[in-house]
Predict the structure.
Amino acid sequence: MSCDKSEKKITETFNNISSYYDKMNNIMSFGTHYFVKYFALKSLKLKNGDMILDLCCGSGDFTKIFSKLCPKVKVIGFDNSVEMLKLAKVKNPKGVFLKGDCLDLPFNENEFDIVTMGFGLRNIQERKKALSQIYKVLKTGGQFLHLDFGKHNIFNKIFDLYVKFLAMFFVKNPESYLYLIESKNEYPEPDELIKEFEDNGFKLLKRKDFMFGIISVQIYTK
Ligand SMILES: C[S@@+](CC[C@H](N)C(=O)[O-])C[C@H]1O[C@@H](n2cnc3c(N)ncnc32)[C@H](O)[C@@H]1O
């Protein structure tokens, strides 16, 4: 059976885990997730004044990294969890954050030089619709960075066991972390995903795998 990814369920899940979201990311990744995000974003070509839309921004790590990589870019963080957005604002007091649904982006066509989405698309049931929204708001020749779990290999299985252990013994809402495992394992592997993105008009520019392939980053253009 596939995961429940209704908007209500997903928003509730992230609102519920927000108080320990960053802490769990650090524990689950042995402190490496921030570096993976940093090196992924460093692969983008950034220039002063770029307009960047960070979809599913969560607690605002990408905004913080962009401010270090190129302080003169303009980033809008976008997410539908109020609690996650509160964390993002604390982490980036000068950051711009908006609440909304990636399936209905309130922006114009060709508005952004760069669109990013980290660990977000996996939580959206209507993936094709989300991709068409991203395609719409991205400028022709712009860059779309997608980062999420990747290959379903042996390292991924070891990671599952570790997360199950943490979920069972250390977190208040274990079902949210069991959801993470399920959603990760039913998400297409990078080769299949790249094909899907290309079928929706994107052209692959670059691909990078991290953590023995269990994290995958792709940069596309339109
Ligand atoms: C796993 S977190 C990733 C947060 C951040 N990008 C990171 O890498 O740490 C996924 C985020 O996606 C948001 N989200 C899920 N579905 C969404 C949707 N349809 N529209 C907007 N945000 C969504 C959730 O609220 C959550 O904050």
Notes: The mean pLDDT is 95.
